[in-house]
């Protein structure tokens, strides 16, 4: 079923790496295309029956989602199952239901066309929202529409449930309900045309340990069932119709990746210490409590970034203090006595509007009402979260961090609220941990500029390189036209990090880094040379970072930083680091992404 050999020329597609690993196999092309709903007029005598058909389809779809929700909860945990809450919200939306019924009863259109017309308007609205998270929810709405229409037309939903042998799953997109029903034992990897690193599918892929690449734009239109594919979830590269030579090269890369994974068994219990005895606190980043096991199994020491917003944005209503307390306590207890650094709610106006209903969409949410700006304007939400965090601190080692700091006033006001909350809890006779550290994220140029002043008011800094790079270089990393400018090796970024570390250490506080920068060999070497005290990264990156740390000396990396700071371009910095690896530490070549291309 390989088709004309002359047509099967090797083709390379570049996308966004969503989950690490390398896979080689045949394609299983998922049928997730929408069924066209043809407009047909319904006779007056059959209107009531058409309404009943629509109501029945909604009920059947709800039962499908309930079944998938249960399966997802059993296989991946409660928090991952909550990602289907948005599907239920769409399905039970009264406005959409009434608008559909109006088209059926008054305009006399068939139910499939009526529902499709209504939902397509909603999808169009979501697709034009600038916020990445909300924009990606359009895929959830598409999934609900597809299921309702298929039930209306009596057609079975074809998809991953049909997968019966090992293959690479190819689709335009994969919704949470799609990925929930796929059996890991059959899925070598998956690739999609759309989606980003924050999409539900990407999160699930990382949790299941399945290599994945998203954002490939047109791959699914070029792949036929049983076509041979190579998927590199490390570099974001997918090869269609690979030659024997290419297959051999990637098989070697795959073997290297597997060998690196095996090192977990020997590295997980060893400290992250350089050859000359300098120790780094190496922690994990998590989005849900279900990821704690991964943090432990990959050899991290606690959590250096707990993104609490995921617990909020997957819900229809605000979580209560008790719900948050139980949620945070679970993580703190499982990792005690290792530290858990909890970042307070970091959302923008668009993300919160579903249950706050206090803000209209912003023109530029990334530079608007988000992070500490939001929580200081919604002190009810902020105080509730802080109460839950401080109560959870009684069970272990908790640190608290405020995101998106740009002015000193934000720090002072947030700390004042912390003291008020702690006083209230003490009066109410709640137990709390001793000496809870309060810190801030350094992710804006203004915070770097006044880092020496900020350091006098907090216990630690954590540098969020993802946003620091975006704001400093004026680059929207989601914009493919200018994504080439988004570079953590830019000398300006290196100087910002150096200045932040200097300000922190001069004032006697520790400083960590929680962005993606230390996840690459270049970033890890430079982060070491800056003498950062703590690195925090996704669990699957921990073994690689630990090996890099244990393969070099602090003095070597400090010298690299001194040289890199004086350079003019990111290209020159990269060349400096490549030369160092080639001449001094060739054993680190395996961590250079280009080495597997």
What amount of the residues lies in strands?
5-15%
- pLDDT averaged residue by residue: 85
| Number of beta-strand segments | 17
Give the class from helix and strand content and strand pairing: alpha/beta
CATH topology name of the largest domain, in short, is TIM Barrel
Could you say what the CATH architecture of the largest domain is? Alpha-Beta Barrel
Count of distinct structural domains: 3
How far is the first residue's CA from the last residue's CA? 27 Å
Q: Largest sheet, order of strands side by side?
A: 1-8-7-3-4-5-6-2
Which ranges are low-confidence, i.e. pLDDT below 50, for 5 or more consecutive residues? 1-6, 349-359
Number of helices: 27
Helical percentage? 40-55%
What is Rg?
Answer: 25 Å
CATH class of the largest domain: Alpha Beta
Question: Which homologous superfamily in CATH is the superfamily of the largest domain?
Answer: Phosphoenolpyruvate-binding domains
List the helices and strands and how they pair.
Elements (H helix, E strand, L loop, with lengths): L10 E4 L1 E4 L2 E8 L17 H30 L1 H4 L3 H7 L2 H12 L5 H17 L4 H5 L1 H15 L14 E5 L4 H5 L6 E6 L7 H9 L3 E3 L4 H4 L5 E5 L4 E4 L3 H19 L1 H4 L4 E2 L5 E8 L5 H6 L5 E5 L1 H5 L7 H15 L3 E5 L5 H8 L15 H6 L1 H14 L4 E6 L5 H20 L9 E6 L2 H5 L1 H4 L5 E4 L1 H9 L17 H16 L3 E4 L7 H9 L4 E5 L3 H8 L4 H12 L4 H14 L14
Parallel strand pairs: 3-4, 4-5, 5-6, 10-11, 10-17, 11-12, 12-13, 13-14, 14-15, 15-16, 16-17
Antiparallel strand pairs: 1-8, 2-6, 3-7, 7-8, 9-10
């Amino acid at each position: 079923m390989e088709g004309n050999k002359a047509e099967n020329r090797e083709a390379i597609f570049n996308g966004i790496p969503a989950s690490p690993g390398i896979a080689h196999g045949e394609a299983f092309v998922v049928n997730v295309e929408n069924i066209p709903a043809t407009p047909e007029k319904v006779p007056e005598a059959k209107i009531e029956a058409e309404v009943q058909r629509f109501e029945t389809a909604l009920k059947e779809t709800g039962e499908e989602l309930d079944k998938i929700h249960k399966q997802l909860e059993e296989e991946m945990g409660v928090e991952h199952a909550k990602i289907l809450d948005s599907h239920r919200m769409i399905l039970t939306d009264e406005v959409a239901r009434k608008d559909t019924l109006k088209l059926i009863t008054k305009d006399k259109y068939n139910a499939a066309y009526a529902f499709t017309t209504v939902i397509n308007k909603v999808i169009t609205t979501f697709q034009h929202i600038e916020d990445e998270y909300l924009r990606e929810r359009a895929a959830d709405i598409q999934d609900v529409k597809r299921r309702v229409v298929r039930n209306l037309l009596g057609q079975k939903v074809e998809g991953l449930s049909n997968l019966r042998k090992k293959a690479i799953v190819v689709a335009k997109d994969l919704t949470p309900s799609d990925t929930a029903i796929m059996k890991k034992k059959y899925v070598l990897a998956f690739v999609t045309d759309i989606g980003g690193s924050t999409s539900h599918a990407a999160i699930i892929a990382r949790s299941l340990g399945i290599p994945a690449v998203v954002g490939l734009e047109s791959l699914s239109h070029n792949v036929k069932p049983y076509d041979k594919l190579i998927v590199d979830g490390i570099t974001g590269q997918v090869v269609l119709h690979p030659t024997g030579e290419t297959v051999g090269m990637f098989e070697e890369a795959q073997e290297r990746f597997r060998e690196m994974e095996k090192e977990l068994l020997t590295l997980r219990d060893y400290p992250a210490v350089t050859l000359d005895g300098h120790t780094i606190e190496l922690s994990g980043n998590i989005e849900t409590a279900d990821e704690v096991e991964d943090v432990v199994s990959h050899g991290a020491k606690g959590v250096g970034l707990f993104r609490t917003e995921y617990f909020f944005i997957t819900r229809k209503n605000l979580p209560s203090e008790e719900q948050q307390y139980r949620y945070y306590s679970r993580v703190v207890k499982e990792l005690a006595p290792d530290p858990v650094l909890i970042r307070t709610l970091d959302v923008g106006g668009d993300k919160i509007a579903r249950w706050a209903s206090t803000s209209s969409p912003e023109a530029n949410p990334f530079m608007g009402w988000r992070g500490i700006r939001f929580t200081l304007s919604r002190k009810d939400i902020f105080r509730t979260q802080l109460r839950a965090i401080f109560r959870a601190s009684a069970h272990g080692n908790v640190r608290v961090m405020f995101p998106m700091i740009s002015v000193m006033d934000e720090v002072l006001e947030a700390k004042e609220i912390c003291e008020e909350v702690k006083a209230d809890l003490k009066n109410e006779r709640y137990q709390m941990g001793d000496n809870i550290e309060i810190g801030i994220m350094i992710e804006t140029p203004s915070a770097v500029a006044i880092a020496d002043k900020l350091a006098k008011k907090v216990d630690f800094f954590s540098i969020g390189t993802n946003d620091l790079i975006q704001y400093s270089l004026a680059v929207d990393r989601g914009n493919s036209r200018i994504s080439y400018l988004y570079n953590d090796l830019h000398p300006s970024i290196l100087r910002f990090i150096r200045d932040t570390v200097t300000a922190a250490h001069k004032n006697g506080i520790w400083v960590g880094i929680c962005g993606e920068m230390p996840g690459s060999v270049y970033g890890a070497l430079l982060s070491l040379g800056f003498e950062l005290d703590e690195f925090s990264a996704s669990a699957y990156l921990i073994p690689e970072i630990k090996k890099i740390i244990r393969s070099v000396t602090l003095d070597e990396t400090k010298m690299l930083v001194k040289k890199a700071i004086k350079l003019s371009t990111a290209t020159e910095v990269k060349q400096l680091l490549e030369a160092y690896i080639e001449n001094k530490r060739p054993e680190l070549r395996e961590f250079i992404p280009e080495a597997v291309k």
